[in-house]
Amino acid sequence: MSIAKTDNPTASARPIKPWLAEVWRHAMARPTARIGLVWICVIAFCAIFAPLLASSHPLLLKMDGRWSSPWLRHLTPADVILLTFGFVGLPILFCRRWRLSQRLGYVLMAVVLLIPLCLLTIRPPQVVVYERYRELQAASKVQYILQVPVHHSPSDRLRDQPSPEPPFPWEPSAHHPLGTDINGQDILATMIHACRIAMSVGFIATGISVLLGILVGGLMGYFVGWTDMLGMRLVEIFSAIPTIYLLLTFVAYYERNIYMIMAIIGLTGWVGDARFVRAEFLKLRNQDFVQAAIAAGLPLHRVLFRHILPNALAPLMVSASFGVASAILIESTLSFLGLGLVDEASWGRLLDMARGEGGGFHWWIATFPGLAIFLTVLAYNFIGEALRDAMDPRLYGGRG
Amino acid sequence: MLTYITRRLLLLIPTLIGVTMVVFFVMALSPGSVTTMMKSAEGNMRPEERHRVEEYLRKRYGLGDPLIVQYGRWANHISPIGMKEPGLGFPASWRVGFKAPDLGESFIRKRPVLDVILDAMPVTLLLNLLTIPIIYIVAITSGIYAAKHRGKLLDVGTGTVFIGLYSMPTIWIGVMLLGFFASRDYFQWFPTGGLHEITSGSMPFLPGTHEGVFNRGWLLDTCWHLVLPIVCMTYGGFAFLSKLMRASVLENLYADFARTARAKGLSENLVLFRHVLSNSVLPLITVAASILPGLLGGSLIIESIFSLDGMGRLMLDAIKMKDQELVLSETCVVGLIGLLSMIVSDVCYAIADPRVSYE
Amino acid sequence: MENRFSFKDLIVLTLLAVLIVSVWLAVKAWDRQWEQLQAIRARVDDQGRDLRDIQKTLASGIAVGNPNSGTPTTAQADQGDDPFARLRAARRMTGFASGGLLVDAFGNSVGKLTPLVSSDAYAATVQDYVLESLANRDPATLEWVPWLSTGWKIVDRVAEQDALIQKLKAAGKTDDEIAKDASVPPAIQIKFTMRPGVRFSDGTPLTADDVIFTYQWIMNPKINAPRERSSFERITSVQKTADNEVTFTFREPYFAAFEQAASFGIMPAHFYGKVKPEDFNESVGLLMGSGPYRLDDPTSWKPGTLIKLVQNDRYWGLGGAFDGMVWREISNDGARLAAFRNGDIDLFPASPEQYAKMIKEPTILDRTWQFEYQNPVGGYRYVAWNESKEGKATFFADLRVRRAMTLLLDRQRLIDQVMLGYAVPATGPFNPLSKQCDPSVKPWPYDVAAAAKLLKEAGFEDRDGDGVLESPGGEKFQFKLTYPSGSANYESMALFMKDAYAKAGIILKPDPLDWSVLVERLNKKNFEAISLGWTAGIESDIYQMFDSSQSITEGDNFMSYKSAALDGAIREARRTVDDDKRMALWREAHRILHEDQPYTFLLFAKSLIFVDKRIQNIQRVKLGLNPRIEWFVPKASQRTAN
Questions:
Q1: How far is CA B290 from CA A150, A236, B341, B350, C419, in A?
Q2: Which of A55, A292, B249, B310 could bridge across to B124 with cysteines, CB 3.0–4.6 Å?
Q3: How would you classify the pairing of strands C188-194 and C149-156?
């Protein structure tokens, strides 16, 4: 035990932000990580601007000499919030005139204000006849029509087709670049709108599991002794049963909705994080500088949570990155097994439809949604991998 | 060492109780609790039938008792040690002692759960026991080469490809493989599912020609059915183990003993294969057991896509039909396998690396 | 720890693993041989027993009497009451040959083959070839023909009983007293004369005692057969009234009395009687009867093993052409289809999607017979409109609303889109092929204008201009359509209806539920509308679904539909034994249901089946396809291995 170290107890607890930024910069130097980031931005873009990309409702419609915008009328509160965020919030976030914390503050405040406002005031029509505009057009009652790039909403089931020939699903064609599913819904539109589920499941489920992990792991690492013992048993329980079994048991007995599924994925995924945080705490706890800090009169919790936890943040970022990937995988697997969401657009559900009855196979329903899942998962894994390696210069870097 | 193993085995008991508690309470606290089973099992049940189920549940769980008592009763049924009727088990005259664990009856299949699980277990084990060696061979080889050519295209390439493979959803690859390679519309190279051709019962065991006609035989037929499932199960596992192997080889490549060997004038390859390799395989062997729970989970998806009647498919069916006893028991059995494999893995690690303290 | 794990150890371990695997494979191979050996041994034992039997009969000098196994040349004469006339006709066909195996596949695993305690339809299919009943429906005419009996006499004393009850009532007796009064004659008695010379597959004769044993076995409360037991509740007694006569007594008149008495499978008393009821409930493969096929070993079948029936060499009548019937369990749809294409299985019931695709393939057209037919026992799909939820009347309590809901659905298009055209629109609960169905009832048309008018009359209008109709009370017209989850078909239908009703300003929310939850909702009547299907019989009893008394908790009239006129018709029909009178009553019920629309009757699906072209003499008859024992395969293309 050297006396010298007590002079500067926080020396080895590197300052947080620069280090995080350093890791991030290092990781993003990798082309794979950059590709990953770009793809996630694409998905996020689709999620935010979904109604602007795919909708059956025309942006502008001139009928009988009157102008109207059915598109505006059919926006849901969620659409409005996301679109406002996309058009106003994003520019603010990327505006360099204010400090980052300021920008974040503004956007957060705006969103908090906007949500109740939208939920209260926006009432889109509850019965939607998607084929109306096409029927009007066919009857040449429309003088002018302006539509978004993809002319179909996810739940537009082409009811204006008197008797679909050939029967659904349709192969990709000019009208439906990625084909339709077995109910006649446009796959491209469905996939665009499904980005929302993918994004939110990934983030919320991972958020829950990381928080739980920090909590349980932190408690174990802080109290040690009996708490640790109990906590480790808990960890063992959850890591002994394959996650999918646990998930299925949960899903089987509770009502299925998107929040439930997010929560359940989060609840079953915290084990790795907890283990990790605990190990970090235990490791650092015994280190000289911490012992010294304690000896110097700093309370242990202060040392642990102020100085050790921040150190663990970057590795947690790695695990969160992998976590998002696996949450997306799990959600699509559940949907694929027929235990996921019923009414919402989801990549996994589409994939399930690809297996037609009796060994039939619709390649376009399998390929595109599968590719979307794959690329998204890959993107997160690339980023996670790059972050991990950036933190561990021993493995990469050639000259180490 | 022995004390360590004993300690771990003793700790198994509270963990196992925890596992059963988790599954039991997940089920019991769900809307409708244990009694949902009565309505669910058969869909439409006549009063008499319902009566019988009620009787069964009362005996098994004690409907109406507090949950914790219900749990105790159920746990006693499934445990090999506990309260029992005198005259059964060992010691025979006692009310407490060893007995045959009773996993209950599957309502859908109307058979003892144990039978059903034992029927399904070999398929899942077969899948997993075939998968593990394949993953290891590929991971070890690629790990060595990646380490040897560190930083070069080969290293970065295999790393990236393996992450790519790892990111491919099994559900997607499974569906695509089936769709393209087991379908009349494209290439019908493989069967669409199952473990045997339906005529396999009358096939000879080994391949051979009979009256000039080639007969692939039972063994080859089974292998042929296993190709696609095994492909789906293996490809995702390379990334993790290959990376581990690579790190481990790298660590040893620059260790003192390797330097000494090099200094003696041994060629790089000799150093690698004679000295470094034996040390590097170690961490891989020790994680072998701990990847089992993950693989068991993966085989659930594979079994459901390729219609293999293993534990995973059984579980999925049980869940969809709400066959409660089956769900409970299977989760317990799988949990037990997982726990045991974790202990084996830890013990392996302790044996292999003397530096680990047995605390 | 000096000797650390080295690469050499890895190789040694690998070699060890290889060794273990090879030993395991060897054991497996040996096992398979042993199983086959066992099968051969069992067969030899059986033949030995047969030989001994024959010797015994020869020694005692009695010829085996079998009045019905006449030669084909005499068949023409006694076609009238010969149960095997159709089989004989098949045997006269050119190319007829007996032998070969017929291989079918089940989509699910069969848990039990033991009769009564097995619950799935698959087990019932197998039991059909092993167990026989007193009478059978002729597949072509659907009339009853004698089978294990040579004939029957029905004593119908309904009128006499009614008169007596009226008199007793007038005398001031309560219903209870009348029920106990011994002087009141039973309403119906059916006397069956047992066919002589019938033997079970182990050679024991089948007698009246076996019929009585089966009845008592079912009625034994220890036997886990509540379903059969409850359907037998109407039978007061089954007695042996003469050496070869069994009498079934029904105290109350019931239209299906004959069917109940005539159609249950007779189980051998000497075989099942030895088994304790508890063991019987637990057993999985106890199956023996007098039918044309039998299990190789009537006790040892286990779930997961091949289901194979072999010819019953001791069959009293004319057996089928096939040496054996095999059912395989192939749960994967695709694998089943592939097996059919490979010729490994002989039949393939297709889904509409598969059928539409397969009939375009030249190889399939070449290699198979295709059958697309309306099945008389095929069920129908419907949407039930709940008229009372939590004690309050719903929108659907108004007849005009219900009718409008039907008018808004373009059912032909629904059939085209969801069933690819392989279905017919339903007008009521009776199969169009059945005599119960009134052919004058035409399905409600697709008529949006008429529906709008009806809705307006009922007070549903869009008053606030948001496109959604409001009820007279100002509520929005929205409802949840419940349907079983996990079925793409039901989902497509629900979505179709959602879009159809959206056009009329009605919000439909799809509500897929797990079967268990769905049943609970039904029992508590806690739903708004539900989409389900009922299976139908050759003659369907609709009392359960539509009689107002069945709107109790857990009753099948879960939409709380009440109509006095319909109740009258159904109840009268159920106690009418005379066919013509009864059919008139059923048709009246049909017309009432059509007017009232408690359900929107959607469609009757068609049966779509492919059969391998090797198989000959497949005919379309009233029952669908003719029974498989009439089929045969010419010698050259017979299948010998499983």
A1: 48, 11, 6, 14, 49
A2: B310
A3: antiparallel
| pLDDT tens-place string over residues C554-612 | 778 888 899 999 999 999 999 888 888 999 999 999 999 999 999 999 999 999 999 99
Strand partners, C564: none
Contact C272, C180 (CB under 8 A): no
Q: How many residues does chain B have?
A: 359
Hey, what amino acid is at C199? R
Look up residue C233 and give its amino acid: E
Per DSSP bridges, beta strands C324-329 and C101-106 are parallel
Residue at token pair 């009178």: C581
Question: Could you tell me the two tokens for A241?
Answer: 């049963």
Whether the CB-CB separation of C594 and C563 falls below 8 Å is answered with no
Q: Give the bridge partners for C620, in sequence order.
A: C625
Q: Among residues B331, B277, B330, which one has the least CA distance to residue B145?
A: B277
Q: Write down which chains contact chain A via at least 3 CB pairs under 8 A.
A: B, C
Asked if C5's CB is within 8 angstroms of B278's CB, the reply is: yes
Provide the ipTM: 0.84
Q: Which residue has the tokens 């640790």?
A: A228
pLDDT tens for chain A, 400 residues long, are 344 433 444 444 445 556 777 788 888 888 889 999 999 999 999 999 999 999 999 999 988 888 989 999 889 888 998 998 888 888 888 877 778 788 888 888 888 888 888 888 888 888 888 888 888 888 888 888 898 999 898 888 888 877 767 778 888 988 889 999 888 889 999 999 999 988 999 999 999 999 999 888 888 887 778 888 888 888 888 887 888 888 887 776 676 778 888 888 888 888 888 888 888 788 777 777 777 777 887 777 777 677 777 777 777 888 889 899 999 998 888 888 877 776 677 898 888 888 876 667 889 999 999 999 999 999 999 999 888 888 765 544 433 3
- Determine, for residues A358 and C502 on separate chains, whether the beta-carbon distance falls below 8 Å: no
Tell the residue number behind the tokens 């947080």, with chain if given. A16
Long-range pairs, C573-580, Cβ under 8 A, ≥24? C573/C255, C574/C254, C574/C255, C574/C541, C574/C543, C575/C158, C575/C252, C575/C253, C575/C254, C575/C255, C576/C253, C576/C255, C577/C154, C577/C156, C577/C158, C577/C188, C577/C253, C577/C255, C577/C257
CB–CB contacts below 8 A, A to C: 75
Angle between helices A243-253 and B292-305 (to 10 degrees): 60
Place of tokens 């299948």: C639
Can you say whether the dihedral through the CA atoms of B189, B194, B199, B204 is positive or negative? Answer: positive
CA of B230: how far to CAs of B124, B308, C40, C116, C269, in Å?
Answer: 11, 12, 36, 42, 51
- Rounded to an integer, what is the distance from CA A257 to the centroid of its chain? 16
Q: How far apart are CA C472 and CA A325, in angstroms?
A: 52
Contact by Cβ (8 Å): C7, B273: yes
Q: DSSP secondary-structure letter at B193?
A: S
Closest chain B C-alpha to A227 CA, distance in angstroms: 14
Contacts of C563 (CB under 8 A, 6+ apart): C546, C548, C592, C596, C598
User: C349 vs chain B: nearest CA distance in angstroms?
Assistant: 18
- Chains interfacing with B (3 or more CB pairs < 8 Å): A, C
- Which contiguous run of DSSP H or E holds residue C247? strand C245-250
Please tell me the distance from the alpha carbon of residue A338 to that of residue A340, in angstroms, as a whole number: 6
Global pTM? 0.83
Task: Work out the end-to-end distance of chain A between its first and last CA atoms, rounded to an integer number of angstroms.
Answer: 29
For A128, which residue in chain C has the nearest alpha carbon?
C502
Beta strands B105-106 and B111-112, pairing class: antiparallel
C-chain CB neighbours of B175 within 8 Å are: none
Amino acid, res. C395: F
